[in-house]
Amino acid sequence: MEILQLKNLIKLYKLAGGGTFEALKGINASFEAGELVAIVGESGSGKSTLMNLIGGLDSDFSGEILYRGKNLRDYNAKELSDYHKKSIGFIFQNFNLIPHLNLVENVALAMTLSNVDKETREKRAKELLAQVGLTDHLYKKPDQISGGQKQRVAIARALINDPDVIIADEPTGALDAETTDTVLDLIKDIARSGKLVLMVTHSDRVAAHCTRVIRIDNGQLISDENFGGFKVTEKAADFKEPKIKNMSLYNAIRMAFLNMRAKLGRNALVAFGTSIGIMAVILMLSLGRGVTNYIQSTMNSYTNPNVTEVHKQSMMPAANSTSTSQAEISQMQQNNMAALTGSSSESNFTQSDLKKLQKIKHVDSLETGYTTLSLGTNSVEYGSKSATIMTLQTMSANIIKSSIVSGKAPGADEILLDKGTADILSKNIVGKNVTLKLMIDGKQVKKTFKVSGTYEQQGSNFSTVIMRYQDLAALYQANGQTLSPNVVYLYTKNKDNTEKIKEQVKKLGFSGSMQETMTEMFTQMMDIISYVLAAIAAVSLVVSAIMILVVLNISVVERTREIGVLKALGARRKDIRRIFVSEAFLIGLSSGLLGVGMTAVLQVLINNFTSAKFDVNVVSMTFNYALAGILISVIISMIAGLLPANRASKLDPVEALRKE
Ligand SMILES: Nc1ncnc2c1ncn2[C@@H]1O[C@H](COP(=O)(O)OP(=O)(O)OP(=O)(O)O)[C@@H](O)[C@H]1O
Fold it and tell me: Which residues of 428-459 are buried (b: 16+ CB within 10 A; e: fewer)?
């Protein structure tokens, strides 16, 4: 039965300087199953050119190569890939085994590329290795066996998908006489099993074993001696053809992993280099977050988490304010001063303001208050001792019980003093009567109050008096003034709602407490600083990307022949690209994981140090930072890997296989 027909086959090589070279000048021949054909001829006569064309490694020809009636030139990429996988098996003079794969993996390669399951392909590979007498060496690497054994592995590899045609380019060229005989016997058996074997040889001794000898000279077929093909005696072992599919992503990653393991030291170094950049980025972000958290928790530790403090005007420039004009800044300072000293009616809440605030979702109760800042006009006296009061404020739910360090919250005609002020007056001031001197509408007003307790300040060291709103209102009334609230406290039962309430308050045009505004400004500043630092650290990732690109490029050059073999076995461009991109992916993934790991270790070390020294954990890595670090690493590596991967996928198989 005719398997292969060559009709007026012409091959022109384009020459670099222009012009062409005719390597094959109209070859005509046809081949049947069971033939063992020796292709002989002088060096440069065109034997390899012919084999490359028949093997589908070079589709640039004129005339026809009909495989089972269909011209190879009309094959699309998928058909060509299937042709390599199913119909053709290659045996090379220099074996071309993949050094980092063991014998079973080498033999099974075409099946791996066809996505045949592991069990089936390993079983088949072991059977074939047994047929060529290598059962004892299944898991050795190619450099652990002899030349003859290598060629037997290559023969097993060529047979894995039970192809119709075997192309052997000087298969015994690198072997001694004895090993040549063993290999020739195997090749004869292949032809006997009903395959067509085309074997290029320089040796007459080898040609004498063949059933047909074709002589080529200067690109022409000059003789064709046919002694009659083998009578097909043995049918190939009952081989059930597995379904040929495209290589799976999993297999591409697995192959990439095996490649990487072969050059572990180099890849580990690259991954380590990249991971330092990733670590720097995550560390900067985590540090920023840690510091911000610390500031926020310090600021908030004295306030009640269920309470939102509301002011009518901002006491600080808005955190996101972009105004720069002098006039605007001056106006803002005026407003702030007025708000701080409570002297402006604009900072008082109207009934409609209170209604709006009360209506905010999740607000369970609303408490009005008053707070004022004075510079030397207010004071508190006890006996001969006197202390200046800077802040006067009314009692609210915002003053949490735990901040009261002695005594209790102020009741009627009682005041709460900050600990510092209390200590100036007396060590045992709680329960004693003191005289409070206040400036109300330009007049000094005196009244006696009992000190109900002392409390710890919230971050500031201002001397502070806290009393009930009613008492202060009464004091104002007694002096012909009406006290209007200039601070409102919104209470919610569930503290998880406080953030939402704060957002609503801002939306309605009110502002939060001074601490909050300051914290916000600080947080924003810290965010900017940590992002800038992270961005600077990220510059090193560009260096990493270049490093990965260079290493993968070197890898492509080193593995050019291997890529040629993969293509001869049916790997599509896409498969080759995938293998290399997968390598980049693995480098990226390991760098990312390593970077996160190193940050975690540093986090423990730095936090141990800072918590021992300052009682603060300054590094706070989140899951999102870690994830972002890994993702950035993977993306950068894969982008860097695209170029080399593309280069590898575009390699011409004929040239790749010829590479020394
Ligand atoms: N890429 C190419 N560009 C131009 N000419 C080429 C190219 N490849 C091969 N040739 C030429 O084509 C002719 C046939 O080369 P081929 O490699 O097929 O010879 P061969 O018979 O296999 O030789 P050998 O026995 O030495 O391997 C040679 O003259 C060679 O110089």
Answer: ebbeeebebbbebeeeebebebbbbbbbebbb
* Structure confidence at residue 495 as a pLDDT band (50, 70, 90): confident
Whole-number Å distance, alpha carbon 22 to ligand 1 midpoint, is 10
Query: In the predicted model, is pLDDT for residue 129 greater than 70?
Result: yes
Give kind and range of the element (H or E) at residue 577. helix 573-614
Ligand 1 closest atom vs CA 219: 14
Ligand 1 centroid–CA 23 distance in Å is 7
State which ligand 1 atom lies nearest to the alpha carbon of 51.
Answer: 18
In degrees, rounded to 5, the angle at the alpha carbon of residue 659 between the alpha carbons of residues 653 and 660 is 155
- Joined together, the tokens standing for residue 222 give 């000059």
pLDDT value, residue 606: 94
Sheet holding 487-491, edge to edge: 307-311, 487-491, 365-369
pTM: 0.73
Mutate to test the pocket of ligand 1, among 14, 21, 658 (most ligand atoms within 8 A of CB): 21
Tell me the percentage of the chain whose pLDDT exceeds 90: 38
Give the binding-site residues of ligand 1, using a 6 Å CB cut-off.
Answer: 13, 21, 23, 41, 43-49
Three-state secondary-structure class, residue 374: strand
* 45 CA distance to ligand 1 middle (Å): 7
Ligand 1: which residue has its CA nearest to atom 7?
13
Give the Cα separation of 361 and 357 in Å (integer).
Answer: 9
User: Which pLDDT score is estimated for 334?
Assistant: 67
The tally of CA atoms less than 13 A away on the side-chain side of residue 427 is 0
Query: Which residue has tokens 């280069």?
Result: 647
High-pLDDT (> 70) share of the chain, %: 92
Residue nearest to atom 16 of ligand 1 (CA): 46
Determine the pLDDT at residue 222: 92
Query: What average pLDDT does range 182-210 have in this prediction?
Result: 88
**What ipTM describes this predicted complex?**
0.97
Statement: residue 323 has pLDDT above 60: no
Indicate which residue's Cα is closest to atom 30 of ligand 1.
44
- Asked if 312 and 578 touch (Cβ cutoff 8 Å), the reply is no
- Name the residue at shortest CA distance from atom 22 of ligand 1: 48
What are the residue ranges spanned by the domains of the chain? Answer: 2-245, 261-294+523-658, 307-514
Mutate which of 13, 218, 221 to test ligand 1's pocket (most atoms within 8 Å of Cβ)? 13
Give the CA diameter of the chain: 133
Rounded to 10 degrees, the C-alpha dihedral 161/166/167/171 comes to: 100
- What is the Å distance from ligand 1's center to 33 Cα? 28
What lies within 8 Å, CB to CB, of 270 at 6+ separation is 544, 547, 548, 551, 587, 591
Q: How many helices (H) and strands (E) does the chain have?
A: 19, 20
The CATH number of 2-245 is 3.40.50.300
How many Cα atoms occupy the beta-carbon half-sphere of 235 within 13 Å?
A: 3
CA pair distance 537, 568, nearest whole angstrom = 44
Residue 632 has pLDDT above 90, yes or no: yes
Q: How far is the CA of 122 from the centre of ligand 1 (A)?
A: 37
What spacing in Å lies between the alpha carbon of 92 and ligand 1's midpoint?
16
CA of 430 to the centre of ligand 1 (A): 107
* pLDDT tier, 660 (very low <50, low <70, confident <90, very high otherwise): confident
Encode pLDDT of 604-622 as tens digits. 999 999 999 888 888 999 9
